[in-house]
Amino acid sequence: MNQFSLTEDQQQLLDLADRFGREQLLPLSQKMDDEEWWPEEIMPRLGELGFLGTTVAPEYGGAGLSMIDAGLILQAFSRYNHAFALSWAAHDNLCANNIHSNANEAIREKYLPKLCSGEWIGCLGLTEPGAGSDALGSMRTRAIKDGNDYVINGSKLYITNGPVADICLLYAKTELDRGSKGITAFVVDTETTGFRVAQKLTKMGFRGSQTAELTFEDMRVPAENIVGIVNEGHQVVMSGLDIERAMISPISVGIAERALDLCVEFAQTREQFGKPIATFQMIQSRLADMYVWKETMQNYCWAVLAEVSGIDETKAGRGEIHAKTAASVMYCANMLNHVLDNAVQIFGGNGYIWESEINRLYRSIKLLEIGAGTTEVRKMIIAGELLK
Fold first, then answer.
1. What pTM was estimated for this model as a whole?
2. How do the domains of the chain map onto residue ranges?
């Protein structure tokens, strides 16, 4: 496959996801933004249509698709409801894909079918109140071995899907003197005694995508729920972060596509000085810039996703792919910032009003410059690989 083009099957997948997003997700977006509301019925519907467990093998209920296929679905959903798209990505990529890639057969058989059907919603528990960009080195959540169980105490912050999750892929320190290592990943049922949603967080953007602080007090988790190897959870984290960065980029692309479409329509219908503003050269210049930024974002996003699709996930977290995924998410977020700034300028006062869709899109950009490593961390990763 040419890295800048799609196969016929991939184009059909993108079109199918686009139709679902336009018909099913767009009508929910305003209420989600107004009320931080979550549409409970959508995940099972996505499971029925095969839009969950996209990269999970069919024997566990998944679709067995590539990472670029999953990215195309995410891009289409993000065009119409980026808040829901983020929750979809946290469920499908951060939770289900990580379990599929790193867990043993027993865990896969127990948890993946219901994650793929939408009966269960998944989340990832990594970031903590005192551990953001340095999530591994500053981790304070501890898991102490006690017989056949681990007793976990601590908290996690800014957890997407936290308030609605049934399953949490949780990271905790199991060996305290090993710095950023000595971490173990666990699959945790959120109904477990000691697991608590401490607070649901109200956000500037991506409203409706449920976000929470989670706390764990003497929470007992069986040793059989360990994902990967004891004290080697950092490898699960690093491989997952590269995939996560590659998978955040399609959100930026989808939002940019929507912003450009809205601006073209507005420019053709909005009249000033007796004619549509689309006839003014300065508006045309802004639209042309937005188009170029959107196209370059998409091409780079697809190229990196195609490369990630073929990588051995155990080798992620280092090397050229580590730099490329950081570059992809950083570039797409930076370009989206330009796109949305121009979009608000084209809409003028109409774009500044809270209830407008352009305003909702504009409020999304900051998370995309912070999540999965801030812009500064992304630059550190790129420079670190260049200077080796």
1. 0.95
2. 8-120, 124-227, 233-386
